[in-house]
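FAQ: What does the model actually see?

It sees only this:
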Amino acid sequence: MKKTIVWFRNDLRLHDHPALWEAAQQGAVLPVFIKSREEERGAASRWWLHHSLLTLQRNLASKGVPLVIRSGDPGEELESLMKETGAEALFFNERYEPDVRRTDRDLTEQLRLRGVEVRRFHGHLLFDPDRLWNQKQEPYKVFTSFWKRCMQQTVPPVLGIPDYLETVARPVESLSVEDLGLLPDGALPFGEYWKPGEAGAIARWEQFAEEGLGRYAAGRDFPHREAVSSLSPIWRMEILAFGCYGTVCSVGAGWTPLCIRRRMRSSGN
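And it is asked to produce this:
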């Protein structure tokens, strides 16, 4: 049976996760999160990551699959896991920061030279930014032109949570979430206002879709009003992909991505 490492980064969810979905169709899956020593986070971001990892860990456990947690250089840790488990492939969703993209390309080339199948997926955005260029084959510089082009595109279908996940046979050494030392010293009040993790993200979007989206055009300049989504930290951690609008609507308001576009247009957006 094929064994695939699915490398979770800022996509700590099970639904609409192309890398996880594709790996699950092909064989056994080893979900991995690696805390990079080079990636610094503030106190609020560390708190959110801690609780989001706990949620992801529980969700994977409900499917009978453990989350393997490591800390260190991602390339070294991934190669070590390949040797430990005999995994033949590495699947992960793209990130779009320039430095991260360069590192990802280098890692992909390095592993492919060693015979590892590496596949990268667009799991965060509605459209592949490398394909959405203007007539001069350059990135758009004017938002209105970019928006009109987006309105002409077909939104890719949203992927659900895999019905079944097969885990690798042998136990794999892992840190605990607590071992990562993410929680800052002292109590933080964020839990009074936010619910990190997949379920909290979906609940927040459903609330906005039902109560705030229709008022967004008039209220978007006033963040203290309920007319705004308050989804910024969720997008930052990418617990909801933009493609997940369709997933959320399928379990909530019953809209499709096209219907959301129409609703936004009717609101003046």
